[in-house]
């Protein structure tokens, strides 16, 4: 076990003891039994109350901004409690709770119902899940359809990439409920010609999009994409880079445009594959700890040209990864500015089997830049082009390949 792994384990102990040993910290993918009483029952309302009080209390005790960004958190929680707790079912209750937490304006502090949590875990495992058949591209709180699964409810309704999601069941798209098998959800879209379209889509079993991919192109450039920094991805990447040590590609493009982050220690261990020396990864600033973190380099790093693709869905660990690559002079960033959401979180089990994520640590880049709320800008800007998406083209990827190919040509002279 290297020194970075040991440091992360020690940090986890500090957080657990410093915050309170009674906090039921959890891993999102460790699913506890869901508690789902009958809709509208006394038991449903009582459970709503227990979940609400637990979630609002943990946020009050642990949120990294002591002033809650100027929000009277306890006052807001008290004022909204009766209305949210009176919800007749799980979906409406969590919509109300998430609307309260959304007032903190922090992407990393949120809740997932037992149903939503199970769906996220299933997607990460590559299993079929309840869905409507389209993925979205976030830009702040706005959402655009980025891809549609053939044969899905969305495809059959004629929904296309580039359509903006205006509302979901009458609410804002970033707070939309999770799909449920057989249940209808009302979406309002705006197509690229400015027309509004209302569709009632019924949740169905749809295949998950692959979370990781690898391609070695005919020109010798390797393109890797991974959407999470999690243990399966690290194991997959370890295998790839072991092969690169034997037969290195001419250049490497790392596509983080759909990567929403994950475990901080795994972000650092993934970065280590690109360096033969110790590197600084981030400075942590929170209620319980202030510290700079380093990661050991690899004994067999990839040494060739690197380009990293970024966009508005690149968040958290993806942003740290991109910032370190640039600050260390290890590669070029291509595409669009990242989301600007890098707060370190802890996940907490809720009484019904749902999960709360609480932002507890602000992260600063090794050079002292604050990414939260700002994002990481690319070295070479390539704006999103919906016409290209519909044609099946990828201008940002083409630009990244051109960058690493030119660097490889220079090195070979």
Keywords, please?
413 residues, alpha+beta, Pdz3 Domain, 2-enoyl-CoA Hydratase, Chain A, domain 1, six-stranded antiparallel sheet, six-stranded mixed sheet, 11 helices, globular
What does this structure look like?
There is one protein chain. The chain is an alpha+beta fold and 413 residues long. The protein has three domains: 3-116, no CATH class; 129-206, PDZ domain (Pdz3 Domain, Roll); 212-412, 2-enoyl-CoA Hydratase, Chain A, domain 1 (Alpha-Beta Complex), CATH 3.90.226.10. Helix content is 33%, strand content 24%. It is built from eleven helices and 19 strands. The chain has helices at residues 3-19, 42-62, 73-85, 90-101, 114-124, 153-156, 231-246, 264-271, 317-327, 386-391, 395-412, and strands spanning 25-26, 110-112, 129-131, 134-139, 142-148, 164-168, 184-190, 196-202, 204-206, 212-216, 221-226, 251-255, 279-286, 290-295, 306-310, 332-335, 344-349, 355-364, 380-381. Strands 1, 2, 13, 14, 17 and 18 form a six-stranded antiparallel sheet that branches. Helix 2 packs parallel to helix 4. The radius of gyration is 22 Å and the shape is globular. Mean pLDDT is 89; it is low at 1-21.
Outline the fold blueprint.
Layout: H1 3-19, E1 25-26, H2 42-62, H3 73-85, H4 90-101, E2 110-112, H5 114-124, E3 129-131, E4 134-139, E5 142-148, H6 153-156, E6 164-168, E7 184-190, E8 196-202, E9 204-206, E10 212-216, E11 221-226, H7 231-246, E12 251-255, H8 264-271, E13 279-286, E14 290-295, E15 306-310, H9 317-327, E16 332-335, E17 344-349, E18 355-364, E19 380-381, H10 386-391, H11 395-412
Parallel strand pairs: 11-12, 12-15, 15-16, 16-19
Antiparallel strand pairs: 1-17, 2-18, 3-9, 4-5, 5-6, 6-7, 7-8, 10-11, 13-14, 13-18, 17-18
Helix pairs in contact: 2-3, 2-4, 3-4, 8-9
């Amino acid at each position: 076990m290297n020194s970075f792994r040991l440091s992360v384990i020690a940090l986890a102990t500090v957080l657990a003891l410093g915050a309170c040993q009674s906090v039921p910290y959890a891993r999102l993918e460790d699913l506890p039994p869901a508690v789902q009483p009958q809709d509208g029952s006394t038991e449903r309302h009582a459970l709503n109350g227990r979940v609400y009080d637990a979630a609002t209390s943990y946020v009050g005790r642990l949120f990294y901004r002591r002033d809650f960004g100027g929000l009277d958190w306890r006052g807001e929680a008290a004022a909204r409690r009766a209305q949210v707790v009176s919800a007749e079912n799980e979906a409406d209750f969590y919509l109300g709770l998430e609307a309260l937490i959304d007032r903190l304006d922090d992407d990393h502090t949120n809740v997932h119902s037992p149903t939503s949590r199970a769906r996220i875990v299933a997607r990460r495992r590559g299993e079929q899940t309840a869905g409507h058949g389209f993925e979205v591209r976030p830009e702040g709180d706005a959402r655009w359809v980025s891809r549609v699964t053939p044969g899905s409810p969305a495809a059959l309704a004629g929904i296309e990439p580039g359509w903006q999601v205006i509302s979901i069941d009458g609410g804002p798209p970033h707070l939309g409920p999770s799909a449920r098998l057989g249940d209808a959800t009302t979406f309002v879209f705006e197509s690229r010609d400015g027309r509004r379209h209302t569709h009632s889509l019924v949740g169905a079993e749809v295949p998950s999009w692959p979370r990781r991919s690898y391609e070695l192109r005919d020109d010798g450039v390797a393109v890797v994409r991974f959407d999470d920094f999690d243990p399966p991805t690290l194991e997959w990447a370890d295998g790839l880079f072991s092969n690169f040590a034997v037969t290195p590609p001419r250049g490497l493009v790392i596509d983080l445009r759909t990567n929403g982050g994950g475990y901080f220690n795994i972000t650092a261990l993934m970065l280590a594959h690109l360096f033969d020396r110790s590197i600084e990864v981030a400075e942590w600033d929170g209620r319980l700890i202030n510290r700079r973190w380093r990661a050991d380099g690899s004994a067999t790093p990839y040494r060739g040209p690197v380009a990293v693709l970024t966009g508005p869905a690149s968040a958290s660990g993806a942003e740290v990864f991109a910032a370190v690559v640039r600050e260390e002079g290890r590669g070029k960033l291509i595409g669009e500015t990242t989301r600007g959401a890098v707060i370190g979180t802890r996940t907490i089990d809720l009484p019904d089997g749902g999960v709360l994520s609480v932002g507890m640590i602000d992260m600063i880049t090794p050079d002292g830049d604050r990414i939260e709320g700002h994002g990481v800008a690319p070295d070479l800007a390539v704006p999103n082009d919906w016409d290209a998406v519909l044609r099946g083209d990828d201008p940002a990827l083409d630009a990244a390949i051109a960058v690493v190919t030119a660097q490889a040509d220079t090195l070979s002279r």
